[in-house]
Write a structure and sequence with these properties.
- It is a single chain.
- The protein is α/β, with parallel strands linked by helices and 283 residues long.
- It has one domain (46-281): Aldolase class I (TIM Barrel, Alpha-Beta Barrel), CATH 3.20.20.
- Helices cover 24% and strands 19% of the residues.
- It has helices at 29-34, 83-91, 138-154, 178-194, 208-211, 233-237, 254-264; strands at 58-60, 74-78, 95-101, 104-106, 120-123, 130-133, 159-163, 198-202, 217-221, 242-247, 267-271, 280-281.
- Strands 1-2-3-7-8-9-10-11-12 form a nine-stranded mixed beta sheet.
- Strand 11 and strand 12 form a beta hairpin.
- The longest helix is centred in the middle third of the chain and has 17 residues, at 138-154.
């Protein structure tokens, strides 16, 4: 299942202000451990971070003018927004999730030139300007991704959404395995927690068993339509929220999805595919 993602229009949020503008082989274990910021064998430092409970309301928006009058518990917005936006949402009592893509290269990002050619794989079908990444090469990706996490933390975000973490089953151009994906996800969780950021599992239902005790929440897209929402329930059982988004361009019955969502305890909303301000929440 491919993650549903924004494109260059997401950068409209990058310059948003409160005045109303718009917003090869598996990597060896020793190479993986060498990317950690703590000495070999030491326990990574974990700063106090947000630990959300199930049942929170949320908004997911990457394009257009932010509807700052919307009262929700949690916002999920792009890394590129200004610190003033995060501060304002905090002043409203909301928590804010920082969106970054961790499994794909995006040619419009400011750090696009920092990606070595050897980590760039096949084009991400359906998303112009994007390529899959060789997530085995944490040694090469770490400086870029750490800088992004640093920016999330410096802007005051509470958490990070690592998009495109579900990658090994895609046609990336690399012989990736589940273990490669798991290594990368656990590395990201460690790096986020060291910066005081909570982290969410994005899609990838087959990873729940390995991540639910480490990650702080989950985000799903079209999980009800494709009938794998139940796989995410261990997060709810652990009193960790599942923020679910369904999309209007698929012929699903949102009323039925909401009934299922209520039974599972998810926080479910209906969105347009371009992820503008439109939002319909389950009652």
């Amino acid at each position: 299942m491919e993650s549903v993602r924004h494109n260059m229009a997401a950068l409209a949020l990058a310059v948003c202000c409160l005045a109303g503008c718009s917003l090869g082989h598996s990597q060896p274990t020793d190479a993986f451990e060498a990317t950690m910021t703590t000495p070999a064998g030491a326990t990574p430092i974990v700063k106090a971070h947000w630990q959300p409970s199930a049942g929170l309301s949320w908004q997911l928006q990457f394009t257009g003018k932010l509807d700052l009058d919307l009262e929700v518990d949690v916002w999920d917005i792009d890394l590129e927004v200004g610190r003033s936006v995060v501060d304002f949402l905090h002043s409203r009592g909301a928590k804010v999730i920082c969106y970054i893509s961790v499994g794909s290269y995006e040619n419009w990002r400011e750090d696009a030139g920092e990606f070595p050619a050897e980590v760039l794989g096949k084009d991400y079908e359906g998303w112009s300007g994007e390529k899959w990444l060789d997530i085995r090469r944490i040694d090469l990706l770490a400086p870029i991704m750490r800088a992004r996490l640093d920016e999330c933390a410096e802007k005051g975000f509470d958490a990070v959404e690592p998009d495109n973490m579900e990658i090994y089953t895609n046609k990336t151009g690399f012989p990736l395995t589940y273990q490669d994906q798991l290594n990368y996800a656990l590395w990201f969780a460690s790096e986020a927690h060291q910066r005081g950021l909570a982290i969410g599992q994005k899609n990838a239902p087959d990873m729940v068993k390995d991540l639910v005790d480490v990650f702080d929440f989950a985000i799903t897209e079209d999980a009800f339509f494709y009938r794998w929402a139940e796989d995410m329930h261990p997060y709810i059982a652990a009193n960790k929220p599942v923020f679910a988004a369904e999309y209007t361009d698929l012929p699903g019955n949102f009323e039925l999805f909401c009934q299922q969502s209520k039974r599972l305890g998810f926080s479910t909303i209906l969105k347009h595919r371009d992820l503008n301000s439109f939002r319909q929440a389950c009652p």
